[in-house]
Please model this.
Amino acid sequence: MNIFRLAGDMTHLFSVLVLLLKIHTIKSCAGVSLKTQELYALVFAARYLDIFTNYISLYNTVMKLIFLGSSFSIVWYMRYHKIVRRSYDKDQDTFRHYFLILPCLLLALLINEKFTFKEVMWTFSLYLEAVAILPQLVLLQRTRNIDNLTGQYVFLLGAYRALYILNWVYRYFTEPHFVHWITWVSGLVQTLLYADFFYYYFQSWKNNQKLHLPA
Amino acid sequence: IKNQVDKDEL
Model:
């Protein structure tokens, strides 16, 4: 464990807590894409298959449970909670996210480190996480006034993977065998997808204005 | 073991 990875995990933890806080306290999911939340639930389900068979550390297991629990409960809130679901604008959240799942699965079957079920599912979760934010970014472009919590959520979600890239650089130089091209490339693609969001987020913070993405 | 250790990230 290094400082970059710990900072990345904490940033990721904060992003889901910010979202849960928003949905649980003000009982609203306005501006949040259910499709992105469903994709993330799928990412964690596919990545943490070995949560009970491959014990690494208490920290690792606890964090996996938090990510699984939070992502599935956010999907539950947005789908079934009688108050929260009313604030979900489904006619704006129209990204066809099923078109993301199949290509990621096919790519994972083609390009992976080892052709086993667990390894393919793990690789699938990496590819899917790289594109999971797309429905949310599209929704943000359509949402007139993005509320602060939603903007912070997306910012933290992008920042965590950027910190992971620093973690991979650090591990590459400190651990001889640590080479994971698949993880690195998909992590880089994922972070690059946030590039324009980061730009507008920084601009709104610098000029102290409301965050607004151009259509 | 190598592979298991490498899967120590979230």
